[in-house]
Amino acid sequence: MARKIVIASGKGGVGKSSMTKGICLSLADLGFRVLAIDCDIGLRCLDILFDTGSRCVFDWGDIICEVCGPFKAITEAGRVDVLAAPSQLLPEFTPLAARSMVKKFDNDYDYIILDAPAGIGSAFMLAAAMADEGIIVSTPDPVCVRAAEKAGAELKKQGVGEVRLIINKFNKGAVENKFLLNIDDTIDSTGIRLIGVVPEDPEIPFHYTSGKNLSKKSPASKAFIRVAKRISGERLPLNLKLLK
Ligand SMILES: Nc1ncnc2c1ncn2[C@@H]1O[C@H](COP(=O)(O)OP(=O)(O)O)[C@@H](O)[C@H]1O
Ligand SMILES: [Mg+2]
Asked: What is the pLDDT of residues 8-55, one digit of tens each?
């Protein structure tokens, strides 16, 4: 049965979709079968990040509404399969319907990674309904940390079991100069157990969000592989030397 992990945050722009792509590709590099599901109804972007846009015809709303079968809606993006988000929220998209849609893929993937929208509205609730585990993404600043704490609590309220934290856009210099919160303060304020720290990396805005891949040596790329290994059960200590 596939492990279903929702990537959420509360605030927008903290890196949920970038983390979704990084985690999916790294899990695939480790040999796992991975499906990425875009849950950002009306504002989908995984088709851009995975460069599947021009080939993408159906979305998961079409599966729920029985316009197409589950595998017809999937677009291949090399080592990862991608399922696009619907363009609008329909009354048919109940938490129960979303949950049973995602379960159709249970036997075909090891991991289903769900890219949640910003906020804690209806589309966020659907993403939560599809997941068993959660990863909250936060940048180390007080505004995002507060939203992360709220989003984490909401996921738990919705029955998502284990919830863990990625601190994204970490910048050692800014933390040392006290412009940003340090790792311990971010963990304490969110109250969520850490699964990884991804440094601020110019390769992400330059390459990642336009469908290209990171170089294997880029700091974010190394961080993604460590997060993927921890997700799959490896015990890896936090390596502060990898953080710039
Ligand atoms: N680690 C990072 N370093 C630098 N830029 C990043 C990083 N993670 C994300 N970004 C940039 O931040 C912006 C928002 O990222 P995105 O993944 O779309 O966030 P969200 O899905 O939470 O709205 C994008 O321009 C992306 O390139
Ligand atoms: Mg996003």
From this structure: 998 999 999 999 999 999 999 999 999 999 999 989 999 999 988 788
Taking alpha carbons only, the member of 208, 108, 151 closest to residue 6 is: 151
CA of 200 to the centre of ligand 2 (A): 17
- Determine whether domain 3-230 maps to CATH 3.40.50.300: yes
How confident is the model at residue 209, as a pLDDT? Answer: 73
Please report, for the chain, the start and end positions of each structural domain, with discontinuous segments joined by +: 3-230
Task: Name residue 197's beta-bridge partners.
Answer: 167
Q: Are 89 and 42 in contact (CB under 8 A)?
A: yes
211 phi-psi bin (left φ>0, alpha ψ -120 to 50, beta other)? left
Concatenated DSSP letters for 57-69?
---HHHHHTTSS-
CB distance 198 to ligand 1 below 6 Å: yes
Q: Residue 168 in contact with residue 140, Cβ under 8 Å? A: no
CA of 12 to the centre of ligand 1 (A): 9
Length of the chain: 244
The residues near 129 (Cβ < 8 Å, ≥ 6 apart) are 95, 96, 98, 99, 158
* Kind and range of the H or E run holding 80: strand 80-83
